[in-house]
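Message: Study each token:
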Amino acid sequence: MNVNQIRPIAICVVRNGGHILVEHGFDPAKDQHFYRPPGGGIEFGERAVETIHREFREELDAELADPLLLGVVENLFHFEGRPHHEIVFVFEARFQDARLNEQREFIISEPSGQNRASWKSLGELSDGQHPLYPEGLLDLLRKQTG
């Protein structure tokens, strides 16, 4: 992706009781661990909802059911020392196979390598230790849970 280009992405919040599934990330420039729901870049000609289905199939080997658009977040941030700008479509869905909710950790396969995802409570995500990205997502989720 070129610098000074806005990137459209779609992410999906999957809930499991009071927890959500988040991917673990690390920014070496900031020496910071962070979390983000799984998802990825929207490809040309692809709708945002199609993106989350594709990303969950490719990265988690999982199918989603009943996706619902929660909102759109504009995300301006620095990663690896470079500025980025994203328009983030935030969906919520559930796993088609409810047995996946029993899995404690997931391996996410991406072209750049493997990563992991696990269940975190909103309390854990708001403690400030490891931020939840994109910015504004935590507030959006709190509004949804009342």
In short: The chain has three helices and eight strands. The CA atoms of residues 2 and 84 lie 10 Å apart.
